[in-house]
Amino acid sequence: xxxxxxxxxxxxxxxxxxxxxxxxxxxxxxxxxxxxxxxxxxxxxxxxxxxxxxxxxxxxxxxxxxxxxxxxxxxxxxxxxxxxxxxxxxxxxxxxxxxxxxxxxxxxxxxxxxxxxxxxxxxxxxxxxxxxxxxx
Length: 136
Hints:
alpha+beta
């Protein structure tokens, strides 16, 4: 009886604490976009702010979709787009220590926790010549 309780408790602990990368890494990160002109910034086709400096919360996991950051100059209408890059999350290697990776690595792969945003600060320089040519 005690042996069965111990086994069930061990299995429950392994399932409850799976996915180091999923648990330890924050689900969202703040991304900042700065520019030399006032702009409107969209993330995943949703307006997240306007001005020369815009910060917003972006999903910090790879979910299989390419989420774009699109900045449009208010002054010239010029559009620039950025595709955020992702790197391997170092916490995935701790999964091997937790349960030899049997349960936790697939958990991180399915949840997208195995990847995280590589760069969180961007500077966009719009063409000043376009602004000057419109004044003439």
